[in-house]
Amino acid sequence: MAINMKKTFLKTVTVMVFLGLFIPIIGFAQIPSLPHQFFGTVNFNNGVAPNGLSVEARITGIIVGSSVTANGKYGYSPNLLFATDNQGVNAGKTVEFYVSGIKANETAIFANGNSSQINLTIPKALPTTPAPSPAPTGDGGGGGTITPSTTVSPLSQAAQKVDANKDGKIDVLDFNVLMVNWGKTGSNMADFNGDGKVDIFDFNSLMINWTK
Fold first, then answer.
1. Is the entire prediction scored with pTM above 0.85?
2. Which of 42, 82, 144, 156 could make an S-S bridge to 49, C-beta 3.0–4.6 Å?
3. Are both 54 and 105 inside the same structural domain?
């Protein structure tokens, strides 16, 4: 009887020590809530949106995700739009969309892990672009030659591979893309090292190139 009680006591102590070691780890290992992905078309009163316009998802005025327009659309690869929920408080809240700072007519309700097509209509007309002035001619000393500027990505070649949403920085939005695709195999935007699966090696690549 005494031996059995002693064994029971030792088992209880072992379980308590085990829980004491791992519960703090669970408490500190905070995993961000899953984002809500948005995509769709963008149309102004007088036509489709041109390339390169900023598209922002906002909740209570705070930007929670962004993309840029391409071919009259937003949120498609490589410029995905993931509205984030890092504090786990956005579920059920209204998401508003802004294109170049102009509020779209449409809104959405945030839901963790969802993917929604929201076609945006902007209640304004696209600005007209004036025709370019002709290049000066004559003996002006060669002053009419204009050298086009080139934009150089601030990211290294290695970092560009893990910039999942192609916004020029490696941050929580790229982390969210990794989490959404975790464990998947085959061709995948989150397969940063190109080995055919999304796993810890891709996470390591993300951390090494983290910029914000």
1. no
2. 42
3. yes
Residue 200's CATH number: 1.10.1330.10
Number of domains in the chain: 2
Residue 172: closest CA among 56, 61, 31, 59: 31
SS3 content of the chain, % helix, strand, coil (to 5): 25, 25, 50
| Integer Cα distance of 115 and 177 in angstroms | 12
- Residues 117, 43 share a domain: yes
- DSSP H or E stretch at residue 179: helix 172-180
Q: How far is CA 157 from CA 21, 53, 115, 152, 194, in A?
A: 41, 25, 30, 11, 14
Q: What is the pLDDT along the chain (212 residues), one digit of tens a residue?
A: 555 555 555 555 454 544 454 444 444 444 568 899 999 999 999 889 999 899 999 999 999 999 999 999 999 988 889 999 988 899 999 999 999 899 999 999 999 999 999 999 999 987 665 545 555 554 444 444 434 444 444 667 777 777 777 777 877 787 878 788 888 888 888 887 788 888 888 787 777 777 64
Q: What is the CA radius of gyration of the chain?
A: 25
CB 48 within 8 A of CB 72: yes
